[in-house]
Design a protein that fits this description.
- The chain has 958 residues and is an alpha/beta fold.
- Helix content is 30%, strand content 16%.
- It has 30 helices and 37 strands.
- Helix 13 packs antiparallel against helix 16 and helix 13 packs across helix 17.
- The structure holds iron/sulfur cluster (3 copies) and FE2/S2 (inorganic) cluster.
């Protein structure tokens, strides 16, 4: 099992947060000299010296509150007994933490708490891991003089409404750590202390059950609670953990670090790691609670094969599956040529797995037909940032946002898709940073508790380039550009060309007002705000990239950042918020058909030579097929074999009917996944995948941070994913003999200049590393382009706005745009198999009241949604979050068929699909669409074929 296991113990808690000051202060605590920084509390200074002052209301993730009076100390020369958590250190201070008087007071305080606390420690789920219990011991409380007969809260009812945690008010000591965690850490403000004195109690929203309140189930309050009042249900069921391993969340691109706290091979809790550089001890509902999919009964644990997709599956050994797959693939190549097969890597898999799949394709398949799901999300980011700044990645770390004065959020919805980063961003906004939101919808950030956008630019879908150009136009026309920065850091010829272009009247806010729907004055005001502050930071998401001009918008954003000098230091930058956990990594690892690892073009003979030598083959110089080209070639009968690792193209890719036509045209499709996903229903070979808990490797998050993924349980199907790829390579006659993913990382480091300093040993030492990590930056690179851009001079690119071909018409008068929701993740294969379904059990269609009324649609009606590509039916939600003329849905449930409607329009440079703009009509209907009926039929058939393979065992698969 894992050698990384550590015996379970609660993470150290220094009582109050670390101070930001650099100035040192010296004091003595119980005669010990301690040096800390100015602003540190006495409580923390003592903890630094290894002296634990009793405390209850203080914890180092929250500002001190000073309510419990347990942490009192004596300070020489000071009156009374100050609370050490709210008292800051001073030079020469002499602190005494123990004396008979202090001991008396502390015992009295504890006595009062315990007199209104059920005495059920032995049967309490947190017995042995409870701060109240620890403090009773620490102050030497042996008896409670008041007895237990007075007024108490023992009859208060438990709130079990949240599927993941229980609130037991009988154990509450009203320390308000939960309330402060919800406010300061999460930024949701769902909790309050209701009432006064004895009647005071914790209340969610308007004293509602947690599930019905504004609570987003992040778990920060549960983590902060020092008693068993707020407790994870898994802990109640399984008991206290025995050991833990540090690993990384397998959901979104924030890449939160966790302690997987275990009992044997079972996860008891996923506890956000306080030392995690991306999350600093916070998490969202997915990472903390939604891990049950990993052991869900739908997991397929045995390799399977079949000749055609209408035959029952046949369970086989791994070796039989490898031999079958290899025979099929080689047979196809003999019959149709070497280029008739390819592979798709996954942004959900580790760097090592992704690297191995592209190596398999290039070295064992003998072509460059490898692509990744990043094709359909952030490929324009890679193109646009490389073309302007010289590197296909975001420029900052997440912490940089804490120095931003203006934050621009464009085409992203961080509170749903990148929740932990959104909490950090909201903290900065509460500190006074300004906010500009550019999005067709009024996302939560536009107005939520204690956060309000200074400007919301609700542009029509498809007009990003026009808006970003107009903002730059104002900057240049009003002389707000950073002239010195441009002169020193940018290519001046390119700048002059761009300047001439951007000053053209067609790029003015007034000229684009009608096209974008955003008042010119709002654009002007937003531009002035962004350009007028010392630090302006831009964060963007798929609402920028998934357009026919996705790459152009990314370049437009880079132009704007260069023009205002907002690059190369903390607090600024161009920051793509990557959707899945390893989008950055899958791109870094050479998943694109034209690029080897490290974004080096396959046509470069020097680069190929390096790989040829290491891999013992000759790599082709021509780029291979992109995913859409593979599908087109399959439909044309020229492409016949595909290996898909951890992706569900039948659900996630646009124009579903075209995709499924392509998949049904293949003679051999190998799918490697945890579940029989939509794509696997068209497969001939199924390699059962391993979840993030069952393997070793690394993920790279949106800030280029490489973080360890560590095995906490044996793979349910016997092999880690990289081992399956290796098995297939060997069966194809191409030898791979890695014994651990660390050897794969060593090979990546040997071949990739930005990774030369990366190793598992360094990851263990530093916790995580932001690439580039090499001789020049041995501990990694938090901020890129500091002295100069990676490409030398920053290159302004002319970015003319070209309206998408996907225009509204009389037949399709509305624009559909798609997105995500907090509780679900991507195609939902994981989150639909958890209690997260409670928050989102179907995809719905958001429609503005005006558009709904025109069509006679009422809330909850079934609505037929029709585009040029296809038709599906969704339930209506009527809301002003969308503007008139725009409808919105998510794509987390396969039967909703959101991608039946999206078209095959795509980004001109990268083929990234234009998910965000589809002209549609919506009308009230009473039955599901034809596609949905066919889908249901096909799904039933495939489930039956799976059931028959399982030798009659009673299994259900959704
Ligand atoms: S629920 Fe826990 S954290 Fe909140 S006030 Fe009660 S004891 Fe304190
Ligand atoms: S789970 Fe998160 S959002 Fe819900 S009450 Fe607790 S801290 Fe607030
Ligand atoms: S924010 Fe993202 S990485 Fe962090 S816990 Fe949530 S899903 Fe996981
Ligand atoms: S820990 Fe200082 S007053 Fe509670």
């Amino acid at each position: 099992m894992s050698t990384d296991f550590k015996p379970y113990q609660r993470a150290d808690d220094f009582g109050t947060p670390v101070s930001a000051s650099n100035r040192e202060v010296k004091l003595t605590v119980d005669g010990e000299e301690v040096t800390v920084t100015e602003g540190t509390s006495v409580l923390r200074a003592a903890a630094v010296a290894g002296i634990n002052i009793p405390k209850l209301c203080a914890t180092d993730s929250l500002a001190a509150f000073g309510s419990c009076r347990l942490c009192l100390v004596e300070i020489e020369g000071a009156k009374g007994l100050p609370a050490s958590c709210t008292t800051e250190v001073r030079d020469g201070m002499k602190v005494r933490t123990q004396s008979p008087r202090l001991a008396d007071i502390r015992r009295n305080v504890m006595e009062l708490y315990i007199s209104d606390h059920p005495l059920d420690c032995l049967t309490c789920p947190t017995n042995g891991d409870c701060e109240l219990q620890d403090m009773a011991g620490a102050v030497g409380l042996r008896e409670v003089r008041y007895g237990y007969d007075g007024a108490n809260h023992f009859d208060a009812e438990k709130d079990k409404s949240n599927p993941y945690f229980t609130f037991d008010p009988t154990k509450c000591i009203v320390c308000s750590r939960c309330v402060r965690a919800c406010e300061d850490v999460q930024g949701t403000y769902a909790l309050t202390i209701d009432g006064r004195g004895f009647a005071s109690k914790v209340a969610a929203s308007q004293d509602q059950p947690f599930l019905d309140s504004e609570c987003v189930s992040c778990g920060a309050c549960v983590q902060a609670c020092p008693t068993a009042t707020l407790t994870e249900n898994t802990l109640i069921e399984k008991g206290t953990p025995e050991h833990y391993v540090i690993t990384t969340c397998a959901y979104c691109g924030v890449g939160c670090s966790f302690r997987a706290e275990m009992k044997g091979q079972e996860v008891v809790k996923m506890m956000p790691n306080k030392d995690g550089h991306a999350n600093h001890g916070h998490s969202c509902v997915k990472g903390r609670f939604a891990f049950g999919y990993a052991t869900h009964k739908d997991r397929i644990k045995t390799p399977m094969i079949r000749e055609t997709i209408h035959e029952p599956w046949c369970e086989v050994t791994w070796d039989e599956a490898f031999t079958f797959a290899a025979r099929k693939l080689r047979g196809i190549q003999e019959k149709y040529g070497r280029d008739a097969i390819g592979g798709i890597t996954s942004s959900r898999c580790t760097n090592e797995e992704t690297y191995l799949v592209q190596k398999l394709v290039r070295a064992a398949f003998g072509n460059n037909n490898v692509d990744t799901c990043a094709r359909v999300c952030h490929s324009p980011t890679g193109y646009g940032l490389k073309a302007t700044l010289g590197e296909s990645a975001g420029t900052q770390n997440f912490d940089s946002v804490m120095k931003a004065d203006v934050i621009v959020v464009m085409g992203a919805n961080p509170t749903d898709a990148h929740p932990v980063f959104a909490s950090q961003m909201k903290r900065r906004l509460r500190e006074g940073a300004k906010l500009i939101v550019i999005d067709p919808r009024a996302i939560d950030l536009v107005r939520s508790a204690h956060v309000e956008a200074d400007y919301h630019l609700p542009l029509k879908p498809g007009t990003n380039v026009a808006i970003i150009n107009a903002i730059s136009h104002v900057v240049v026309a009003e002389g707000l550009e950073a002239k010195e920065f441009i002169e020193q850091r940018c290519d001046l010829d390119a700048y002059e060309d761009w300047r001439k272009f951007i000053l053209d009247e067609r790029n003015s806010p007034e000229a684009i007002e009608e096209e974008t729907g955003v008042p010119a004055e709002t654009v002007r005001a937003a531009a002035r705000l962004y350009a007028s502050v010392p630090n302006g930071a831009i964060y963007y998401g798929l609402g920028v990239s998934e357009h026919s001009q996705g790459s152009t918008t990314v370049m437009g954003i880079a132009n704007l950042a260069m023009a205002t000098g907002n690059l190369g230091r903390e607090g600024v930058g161009v920051n793509p918020l990557r959707g899945q956990n390893n989008v950055q990594g899958s791109c870094d690892m050479g998943s694109f058909p034209h690029e080897l690892p490290g974004y080096r073009h396959v046509s470069d003979p020097k680069v190929r030579e390096m790989f040829d030598k290491e891999w013992g083959v000759e790599i082709g110089a021509d780029p291979g097929l992109r995913i859409p080209n593979m599908f087109d070639a399959a439909v044309a009968g020229e492409f016949k074999g595909l290996y898909v690792q951890g992706e569900d193209v039948a659900q996630s890719d646009p124009d579903t009917q075209h995709v499924t036509h392509a998949l049904s045209s293949l003679e051999c499709m190998i799918v490697q996944d945890l579940f029989l996903n939509e794509t696997a229903k068209f497969a001939h070979v199924f390699f059962p995948g391993s979840s993030f808990l069952e393997k070793n490797g690394t993920f790279t998050n949106a800030e280029r941070r490489i973080s360890p993924v560590r095995k906490v349980m044996e793979p349910l199907a016997g092999l880690e994913d990289w081992q399956a790829t290796q098995g297939l390579a060997n069966a194809l006659g191409y030898p791979m003999n890695y014994s651990h993913p660390r050897e794969i990382m060593d090979e990546i480091a040997r071949l990739t200049p930005t990774f030369t300093g990366v190793s598992y040993a360094k990851l263990d030492e530093l916790g995580s590393i932001q690439w580039p990590c090499n001789d020049k930056a041995q501990a990694g690179t938090p901020t890129m382009h500091v002295e100069e851009f990676v490409r030398g001079k920053g290159l302004f690119r002319v970015t003319p706005y070209v309206p998408t071909d996907e225009r509204t018409s009389r037949k399709y008068p509305l624009l559909l745009t798609t997105g995500r929701i907090l509780s679900q993740y991507n195609v939902g294969a994981q989150t639909r198999r958890t209690e997260n379904l409670k928050w989102h059990d179907e995809d719905v269609l958001e429609i503005h009241p005006h558009d709904a009324e025109q069509r006679g649609i009422e809330a909850g009606d079934w609505v037929g949604l029709q585009s040029r590509a296809g038709e599906t039916v969704l339930r209506a939600v009527i809301t002003e979050r969308v503007t008139p003329g725009v409808v919105y849905t998510t794509f987390h449930h396969p039967e909703s068929g959101a991608n039946v409607v999206t078209t095959d329009n795509s980004d001109w440079a990268t083929n990234c699909p234009e998910y965000k703009v589809t002209a549609v009509q919506a009308h009230k209907v009473t039955k599901m669409s034809e596609w949905q009926r066919n889908f249901e039929e096909f799904t039933e058939e495939q489930i039956d074929l799976l059931r028959r393979a399982r030798t009659g065992a009673e299994q259900t698969v959704d």
